[in-house]
Amino acid sequence: MNKITKILIVVVTCLAIGYFSGIVTRSAILDWYPTLIKPSFNPPNWIFAPVWSMLYIMMGVAAGLVWDRIDYDKETVKKALVFFAAQLVLNAIWSYLFFGLQNPMLAGLEIVVLWLMIYETYIQFAKINKIAGYLFLPYLAWVSFAAVLNASIWWLNR
Questions:
Q1: Residues sharing a CB contact under 8 Å with residue 151, sequence separation 6 or more, in sequence order
Q2: 157: helix, coil or strand?
Q3: In a designed cystine with 96, which of 49, 100, 136, 142 is the match (CB 3.0 to 4.6 A)?
Q4: Mean pLDDT of 59-88
Q5: Distances (CA, A) of 24 to 17, 97, 99, 142
Q6: Rg (alpha carbons) of the chain, rounded to whole number
């Protein structure tokens, strides 16, 4: 399988997971989320879909670049991809906890674990392919912001 095919497979996988995570959020964004007290730095709702779409694409490209280096060091690449898969699962779980269960406190605890997994994925990816590592930095920054936003929403609505 060539590099482009690997990248496309992972990008489509990431976008699909994002899409299914979005299904959980749709009804809550219309009925529950508007009722919450939010901090002044809360972005408008329309910004989340394009930002997450770009982040999922960048994640997929990064993972595809790493996957393409499987001949470089099979064990190192497999380890990096396991961290990638784990953070992707945690990413989806956060949406369920925050929007599905409408539980900002539990989602806030989970986002800390998610952030740590993203950071470890970044470290693992950067060892294998510098560009793949760099592609994870906006994701890490956005989830850092999301963690602060999550904590603020929990605090304001406790």
A1: 108
A2: helix
A3: 100
A4: 96
A5: 11, 10, 7, 20
A6: 16
Which residue ranges form the domains of the chain, and what is each CATH number?
A: 3-33+45-157 (1.20.1260.100)
- Residue 26 one-letter amino acid: R
Q: How far is residue 106's CA from residue 132's CA, in Å, rounded to a whole number? A: 30
What span, in angstroms and rounded, lies between the C-alpha atoms of 116 and 84?
12
Return the axis-axis angle of helices 104-128 and 74-95, rounded to nearest 10°: 160
Least Cα distance to 107 among 122, 121, 92, 119 occurs for 92
* Tokens describing residue 146: 């999301």
**pLDDT tens, residue by residue, 8-50:** 999 999 999 999 999 988 889 999 999 999 999 999 999 999 9
pTM score of the predicted model: 0.95
